[in-house]
Design goal:
The complex is a heterodimer of chains A (about 270) and B (about 250).
Chain A: H1 2-7, E1 13-22, E2 25-35, E3 40-44, H2 51-58, E4 66-71, E5 74-75, H3 81-88, E6 91-94, H4 106-117, H5 122-135, H6 151-163, E7 169-173, H7 181-197, E8 201-205, H8 209-215, E9 218-223, E10 226-231, H9 233-238, H10 242-249, H11 265-270
Parallel strand pairs in A: 3-8, 3-9, 6-7, 7-8
Antiparallel strand pairs in A: 1-2, 1-4, 4-5, 9-10
Chain B: H1 5-35, H2 38-48, H3 53-77, H4 84-122, H5 125-131, H6 136-174, H7 179-189, H8 192-218, H9 224-253
Classes of the chains: A alpha/beta (about 270), B mainly alpha (about 250).
């Protein structure tokens, strides 16, 4: 059934009319996102709009109150734990901070998913891990501990770990945050080459407009719990909507207000 | 305070107890797979047990020496100084060693477990495992829980031996009780049921301390303050539970 869904041209990831709230705070109200196979799709939006929450919904870590989240044609919220784990083996995720296991060396971090899910002879595993580390340019750092790595290196090791199981989809959570221009460029090139060479469908959550516009095929701009604009990065730049213009130009105030909602400033100053 | 407050407290307590029980069942369910990975388990026994050896041995020898002084003074009033070995051994094996080892374990290994797991949560390491289709309860929690449960009786046995040695230092070396009298009375008086009582207590305390530590760490708020609070709660909850359970177990055995 899943194969059929994929072959019939359905989106690999299909988020349809999703409503999700944490307590009284509504995160999504009717969110629609479709990710085509083999594409690089960017999810953009101001901080706190639920971009990372969307990744958690896709990975089945949280469940929406209503709506559908389908990955490889499977309805993620209705999957049992074992089915969800089987699905996660086909999807890699790069965390914002790398989330490397601090008690293990770089080599063991990359080998970790393979050791957990496959029984490979140690020699084969070694070749595989070194190959992935070579791909991210850190074969020489195999013996280092995560505490000895810079932020950019840690993210590249995490990327090697995310691709070691040859996933069909890679989810990137803010891959450029806190990186210097060189590290940003390296990560950017890696995302592109992984997408092209390994045909990995990529979903990037980011608010780095410049970087995204260089690599994304499709962009979604989320604000106020729903998609406010979608299309190619070039199309988004031409979009006349106020919120899109504010986001692209980086204006501090606009539809996304500079101030957190508060009462009248003068009145508050006079209050004792 | 409102009249409803105790009810809320009681209800909250029951809910927490239910949550801890469910977590224990989940950990026990993952303990069999964890037993099949001896390397992980041995590493955790080393962390919880071997790394607690210095504090356990130091405390044991001083507790034994204090017990030797106090018991000698007491027994001398009745002219029964020769029973010092028996008094110290029974006190240590049945009561002091399991309780004090558990309290020290909660302070050293329990806090280390809670803060380690709490920090793994705060730095997304547990979530990353989930995303890699690896159950963190199986990989992180179960081996640490089992490591603590196995380490506790071993540490208690070491506390027993070192404590008796401390008493012997006072009784035989300082107070000149003949060593033959000291040891023969001790060997004759200590029965298997005394050792069994101490052993059962240490296992129960091992389960309690390890469970409290891994539970508090696993459900800690993913912030610096949250991990700190979880560590504090580990020590406080463990200490209170150890003393409560000790009373219940002692009453059952007597």
């Amino acid at each position: 059934m899943n194969k059929q869904a994929e072959e019939s041209g359905e989106a690999l990831i299909d988020v349809r009319d999703v409503h999700y709230a944490i307590g009284t705070h509504t995160v999504f109200s009717g969110l629609n996102v479709r990710v085509a196979q083999g594409s690089i799709t960017a999810i953009m939006g101001p901080s706190g709009t639920g971009k990372t929450t969307l990744l958690r919904l896709i990975m089945g870590q949280v469940r929406p109150q209503s709506g559908q989240v389908r990955v490889f044609g499977q309805d993620v919220p209705s999957l049992a734990r074992t089915e969800l784990y089987a699905l996660r083996q086909r999807v890699g995720m790069l965390f914002q901070n790398g989330a490397l296991l601090t008690g293990m060396s770089v080599f063991d971090n990359v080998a970790f998913p393979v050791r957990e899910h496959a029984r490979l002879p140690e020699a084969v595993l070694r070749e595989l891990v070194l190959m992935k580390l070579q791909a991210v340019g850190l074969r020489g750092a195999a013996g280092l501990m995560p505490s000895e790595l810079s932020g950019g290196m840690a993210r590249r090791v995490a990327l090697a770990r995310a691709i070691v199981m040859d996933p069909e989809v890679l989810l990137y959570d803010e891959p450029f945050v806190g990186l210097d221009p060189i590290s940003k460029g390296v990560i950017l090139r890696l995302i592109q080459s992984l997408n092209r060479a390994m045909k990995i469908t990529s979903v990037l959550v980011s608010h780095d407009v410049t970087e995204i516009s260089r690599i994304a095929d499709q962009t979604y701009l989320i604000a106020g719990g729903k998609v406010v604009a979608e299309g190619s990065p070039a199309a988004l730049e031409q979009d006349g909507t106020a919120v899109v213009k504010q986001f692209i130009s980086g204006a501090p105030d606009g539809p996304v207000p500079f101030h957190y909602p508060a009462g009248d400033y003068f009145t508050q100053l006079l209050q004792r | 305070m409102s009249a409803g407050a105790p009810d809320i407290g009681l209800r909250g307590g029951v809910i927490k107890l239910g949550a801890v029980t469910r977590f224990l069942l989940r950990v026990l369910g993952q303990s069999v797979p964890a037993l099949k990975r001896p390397r992980l388990l041995v590493a955790q026994i080393y962390n919880a047990g071997a790394r607690s050896l210095v504090i356990i041995m130091l405390s044991g020898v001083f507790v034994g020496m204090v017990l030797g002084l106090q018991a000698y003074d007491l027994l001398a009033r009745f002219g029964s100084e020769s029973a010092l070995g028996v008094a110290a051994a029974l006190g240590l094996i049945r009561e002091l060693a399991p309780v004090l080892t558990a309290l020290l374990f909660a302070g050293r290994a329990g806090t280390a477990l809670a803060s380690e797991i709490g920090l793994m949560g705060a730095t997304d390491q547990l979530t990353a495992m989930e995303m890699m289709a690896v159950d963190p309860v199986r990989y992180v929690v179960a081996p640490r829980f089992l490591g603590g449960v196995i380490a506790m009786p071993l540490l208690t046995a070491i506390f027993d031996c070192v404590g008796i040695y401390g008493t012997q230092l006072i009784g035989v070396t300082m107070m000149r009780i003949p060593p033959g009298t000291f040891w023969s009375q001790l060997v004759n008086a200590v029965e298997l049921r005394d050792i069994r009582e101490g052993f059962i207590k240490s296992v129960v305390f091992g389960v309690t301390c390890s469970l409290v530590a891994v539970y508090e760490g696993y459900y800690a708020e993913p912030t610096a303050e949250g991990v700190g609070l979880a560590t504090t709660r580990t020590v406080v909850t463990s200490a209170v539970l150890i003393l409560m359970l000790d009373y219940i177990l002692t009453a059952m055995f007597l």
